[in-house]
Specification:
Blueprint lengths: L14 H8 L6 H5 L5 E5 L2 E2 L9 E6 L1 E2 L3 E4 L5 E8 L4 E7 L14 E8 L5 E8 L4 E5 L8 H15 L9 H7 L4 H9 L4 H32 L10 H5 L9 H15 L5 E6 L6 H13 L3 E5 L3 H15 L3 E4 L5 H13 L4 E4 L2 H4 L7 E7 L6 H8 L17 H7 L4 E6 L5 H7 L4 E5 L10 E5 L4 H15 L2 E5 L15 H11 L4 E4 L5 H12 L5 E4 L12 E6 L7 H8 L10 E5 L5 H12 L3 H12 L2 H4 L1 H4 L13 H16 L3 H13 L1 H4 L6
Parallel strand pairs: 2-3, 7-9, 11-16, 11-17, 12-14, 12-15, 13-14, 15-16, 18-23, 19-21, 19-22, 20-21, 22-23
Antiparallel strand pairs: 1-10, 3-8, 4-6, 5-6, 6-7, 8-9
Helix pairs in contact: 5-6, 6-24, 6-25, 8-9, 19-21
The structure holds adenosine-5'-diphosphate and magnesium ion.
Length: 693
Amino acid sequence: MQINEALTSIRGIGPGRAEMFAALGLFSIRDLMYFSPRDYLDYSVSRQISDVQHGEYAAVCVKFIGPAKSFRTKNKMTVTTVSVADDSENMQAIWFNRPYVAQLVPKETGGYVLGRMDRQHGARFINAVFVDKLPGILPVYPLAKRLNQNIIRNAVKAAVDSCVKSISETLDSDIRNRFKLAPIEFAIRNLHFPTDMNALSVARRRLSFEDALIFTIVLEIMRSGRSAANGIAFKTENTIDEFLPKLPFYPTEAQLKVMGEISEDMAHSTPMNRLIQGDVGSGKTVLALYAMFVAMKNGYQSVLMAPTEILAEQHYKQLKNIFGEKCALIVGSMSKKQGDTILAGIWSGDIIAITGTHALIEGKVKFKRLGLVITDEQHRFGVRQRALLGHKGETQDEDRYEATNFAAQDVVMANVAPDTLIMSATPIPRTLSLILYGDLDISIVDGMPPGRKPVVTHYVPKSKRVSMYRYIESCIKEQGIQAYVVCPMIEDNDEISDTLSAESVYNELKSNLSVRLGLMHGRLKNAQKDEIMTAFRAQEIDLLVSTTVIEVGVDVPNACIMVIESADRFGLAQLHQLRGRVGRGEKESHCFLLSSSQTQTVKERLKTLVSTNDGFKIAEKDLETRGPGEFLGTRQHGISEFGSASLAMDIETLTEARDAAIEIIKNPTEKNVNLIRLAKEKYHNVVSNIVIN
Ligand code: ADP
Ligand code: MG
């Protein structure tokens, strides 16, 4: 077996099974070795039954094992139980619809039992497993259809056993010694099959350091590439005064402050690279419009990218108020004819302000004189797209932008880069944004436009869930308001049995409430999603059950209640962002947070949202309790290039890695060249054409 071979070279994996692994993005032996578990079950020591809390996975050593009993419930479920006991407590091992496990129960008087404790009806171990020997710490992997943990564990074990020695070491001993990092072989072995919890944390630190190092090297390369480029020195005297009369309102102090910062940046001859952070509803759009107005006044085109068509359409309405006929909307769903007309207008320069979805960056839009690129809701975009668009510079050459891989080379040729502005609704703690966006200047829109009422947030205990839904039903009927119910998953998953899915909540509410319900999730086609959203906006749906696809969504002022099921599954920053979808109208808005895990930590974390509406405070709390992984994960930022090792990453690791990256770029010794090459390979779209000397 070789490290670069396909998974089919593992015994027991044929083409069919390889396809299941492919669904997880795993193709080669190497992929499998770098596949991070999402969790671990600590079966390395046995515990007393009485010490095991509700919801915990544990191994216990029992002295008594009774006979297996099976019975069928009214709804035709087969339940199998076995009584077991240690000195501290008696309990039941229990299985649902698995009558065959009766045969697997040992006849001896004692042994180990593994399982998840459920204390709702006395002490019970759900899906218990009897073993003679403790299995140690078991990895739990993300799953895809028709795969289970055992299949993945066995495959990973085979891969690690035969190939871990052929992984080449990426971090030389200087770096490893300086930052106290384990060798790669140790790290990979213990990532999957840790000898103890300490070995696991050493392994994870090593891998997340490497991820962070490679990522920060890319940021450094991008930064060095940028400062070399020339920008456009826009004239910005009086532009604010000219712009203000075009608005239906007077800007807040925070908005005026940021407009000032934009003016200054744009006037400068180095390209603007600014990140605007502000809570949902803080009024960032007008800042984008202002920058586009400055570009227009100087005879330059500008583009405003949105993550969804719905948002692009909202932006387009506002562009029309300011730019009239000279603006355009580009979305994926346009007809070819419409598209061609618009593209011609952009190429000729008749169209000066453009908005659209990322279809823009994938497509063949050719600008006559692009001066400004704005990315809205940046957390939806990867670093990759951000860099790609940022490099679509000024052009006179017709052929230059045919390929999708424009980028840095063109910048060097044209030697002028457009200004860039990124708008993010995810407040990020300052320590972290300095690293993530160290290549950007940062503006913060603090404070809300007048008249916005904070969303009143409630933590709802399980016992009140049913009456809460009754209350919402009555609000819908009596006040004609609308509501969202957000769930973390689309459909039920046995692995995470305490998390409610959108489908199951939808079915439950359908049979219990008499309101008009809708169900929306990411697996629907865009057209279907639009249809549902349109119906919701038209008030043909009262209650919309959804996954987080509504996160970056629309303004429906009549929707003033949001329920979030299994809220403990979300990061606080994301919950905060979700609740920003309500509170857009006249009525007072409410957000209800539910969770099946009622532990003190979960309660305390969720209560942060009850006590404050300040996105930055919430982000700090998130960073404190969950580490930066929350901000680096795909959900928040689209920096999907990070492995799930990022979950173990802490801010110190990230800071150290950044410092190391700065040195490596400044002083690319022979040893480090390899790392730079790795970074370029991993992020090749971003940095392929940038030369570092
Ligand atoms: P976000 O920061 O989430 O993009 P928007 O720019 O969409 O926020 O603004 C939210 C709402 O607030 C919009 O309806 C916008 O017209 C309104 N708004 C923005 N700034 C002001 C202001 N200074 N005064 C009154 N309303 C404002
Ligand atoms: Mg916005």
